[in-house]
Amino acid sequence: MSKTNEREQLTIERACDLKNPSPMMAQYLEIKEKYPDFILLYRLGDFFEMFFEDAVTVSRELELTLTGRDCGDGCRAAMCGVPFHKSDLYIGRLVEIGHKVAVCEQTEDPASAKGLVRREIVRVVTPGTITDGSLLEESRNNYLAAVCRSSHGDGIAFADVSTGQVSATYLSGGDRENRLLDELGTYAPRELLCNLTQRNAEETFRPLIERYNTMITAGDADRFEKAQALAAVNETFPHERGLFSEDEAPAICAIGALLSYIRETQMCGAFARELVRYDDGQFMDIDFNTRRNLELLETMRNKDRKGSLLWVLDKTETSMGARKLREWIAKPLLHPAPILRRQAAVSAFFDAYLAREELRASLSHILDLERLTAKAVYGTANAKDLLAIGQSLGEIPAILSILREFDRKEIAALRDRLDPLSELSDTLCRAIDEKAPLTVREGGMIREGYNHDVDYLRSIKEDSAAWIRSIEEQERELTGIKNLRVSDNKVFGYYIEVTKSYLHMVPDRYIRRQTLTNCERFITQELKEIESTILGARDKLDALEYQLFEELRHMVVDAANQIQATASVLAELDVFLSFATVAADNRYVMPEIDTDSQIVIRDGRHPVVEKFVTDAYFVPNDTALDTERNRLMLITGPNMAGKSTYMRQVALITLMAQIGSFVPAASAKIGIVDKLFTRVGASDDLASGQSTFMLEMTEVSYILKNATKRSLIIYDEVGRGTSTYDGMSIARAVIEYTHSKKIGAKTLFATHYHELTVLEDKLEGVVNYHIAAKKRGDSVTFLRRIVRGATDDSFGIEVAKLAGVPDAVVRRAREILSEIEESGLKAPIPTVKHEEDGLFAGLADEVSSGIEAEAADKIRAVDVNTLTPIEALNLVYSLKTMLDRS
Length: 886
Hints:
Layout: H1 3-15, H2 23-34, E1 39-44, E2 47-51, H3 52-62, E3 67-72, E4 75-83, H4 87-97, E5 101-106, E6 119-125, E7 144-149, E8 154-160, E9 165-171, H5 176-187, E10 191-194, H6 198-204, H7 206-212, E11 215-217, H8 226-236, H9 249-266, E12 274-277, E13 285-286, H10 288-293, H11 309-313, H12 319-330, H13 336-350, H14 353-363, H15 369-378, H16 383-393, H17 396-403, H18 409-417, H19 422-431, H20 452-479, E14 485-489, E15 493-499, E16 511-515, E17 519-523, H21 525-558, H22 560-586, E18 592-594, E19 599-604, H23 609-612, E20 621-625, E21 632-636, H24 643-658, E22 667-671, E23 675-679, H25 692-706, E24 712-716, H26 724-739, E25 746-751, H27 759-762, E26 766-776, E27 779-788, H28 796-802, H29 807-823, H30 851-860, H31 869-885
Parallel strand pairs: 1-5, 7-10, 9-12, 10-11, 13-23, 18-22, 21-25, 21-26, 23-24, 24-25
Antiparallel strand pairs: 1-2, 2-4, 3-4, 5-6, 7-8, 8-9, 14-15, 15-17, 16-17, 19-20, 19-22, 26-27
Helix pairs in contact: 8-9, 12-22, 13-22, 14-17, 14-22, 15-16, 15-21, 15-22, 16-19, 20-21, 28-29, 29-31
């Protein structure tokens, strides 16, 4: 161990049992004891310092210099620090890593403090309680969740502290654990509170930790105590009493725990617009895996926004609209009436290009009213934030004027809910200077002309330079000292400076204040009086400006509910305009929505994939599904042909229709779908010891247990992760069960097991489809068109050739295929030579002929996640035979 590391370790060990810490360190340790699980930022002058274990952790993770500071008993505490004016940057990085941060500020003026400056925790920042917009992603909500589990049901509550949004639900009945994860996956919370032990919580919510990096805060059961929770809920939401029954107490406990945690972290009461209850039957059920597989909000592989459905649909102009769009995509509606209202609004804007673009231009000038208002409520807003609220509200009259051009009742409803708060907007814009600083206690915030006293004090402050110049000229004339200078500093205030060569000319009325190497500094009675006037004006001005700022902030707080309601309307308007713009740009149509069981799509297109097809024509396809004669589409065809794209396309068009968007098709009729399921390719879950096949079967089990007749199910290659016969048997059993009256849901089932196509003649409602292809000699062209009927040709060898497999391997594959077809074998077990030599016998001797390179290329070209057992067996035997015969 290096000397530095030894000193750090020694310091850390001794910090915990310092018997005689210095006064400052005693203060630090007392505060740290109350926040043991937090990184404590302790204000010292112009820096926030961290000590002991916190310093070591932060220096390592943020790559800051680790130093030391005397802490008493002859010890040095490990220390690192960050400039206070850049602290938000570092706090954001720490929270992003997964730390909780407590900010300890000086709460009295060091100049007037007697002894040690008083310090207190003024701010606590955790992943789920951030309110500072600079630490948040503008286009997504930052959710804090609370879960109260009990033997008879689970309560779940969500809050976005930065916007005041609070919602809750209660889950009971079977399969609660999976339903709980699905519900949490809808919101993707940054932090989760629960009444389990930390260990049990981390095990239960492991998918959230892995997928969303959710911080789990558990072990504080007192926070979920029923009486305490009920009191907090009734105090915060007096108008929502009785929203949950006595039997649904876990929901109340979850909401109460949420409010308690927000109160602790924000150092004030929780800001909440209203408590919204939602239940089963209100939104489409989309399970955890389906959200990932359909790439609704981010791509599956890299978690990028580009390549997701959100990326296609998001043409919003405001942060509020972007968040609302995410919410709508995550929670499609189940009732036709609200869907039709959304469609009507989109249709109105779709047909009015000029008005649409004018509205979007006005919205582009509106800042994040939701988060700015929340900052005002929590007391963290500055003058620029209040001005932004005023200027944003100032755009609303122009928006109202354009909306009056529409005669649709849906647009009139939007217009009637939009409050411009003209008086508040006018006051904020008149009061606050556009060049206001980020701090609120150093003046410079109030616009000239708003307050007479501010103008008067500011004139004194600004005229001080002229006064000082006048005194300087006057004293030079009276004394004859040509280089005499009048200046000031924070320690001595104003003074007269005379170099030593002119000291003999200093008059008796000068009072010596300071002696320096080359000069001396003096004051006069006149200068002291002017100093008192100037400095008094500065202090009074700063205090008055802060007082006026607080009055303005309280005006915003008093109007917070109206501002938030208006912000919500603007967000809806923004989403409608986004839907209309995307529809116009991409040739979307308004789907017909009803409660029928049919999904009928003509010339449907995948909304995301078509955006990436720039050098070719995206082939549209039709879809006809219902719960009777077209219950299950059994789709055969090779990999690369487009089966998965087609099935996802049907799911996405259905979802888009149920959020109120237009859809990529020539026409579409969508019967409301209550649940959406996808079972597509998976990779091994090594962390939990689950193989691909085990994951596949777990997902299939979940679908079979939860699907209803109104659901839409996508199965992609069920059974491929095990032996051929096992896989085929499982696939058939799944088809039969899904098709039966126990479920009877609309289903798309893609498979390589061509033997399953006989089910069309055995089960009414099973209909065969395949991907059209055109074969020319030894090559094949996939036409990407879904056509009626089965196919018995997988084109596997042709796909191998398209993938770049060496010609020698392709030729040998054809030979093996001929052997199989001639022998009539059901499984590919051809005779091979030199079996005793092993699979790669003689490979080293064939390097010069290129066999090894061809075999390696063959293996590299294989996608093991999409390879069926029968294809894998073919591959192994073809490689072995190729090498044996070389």
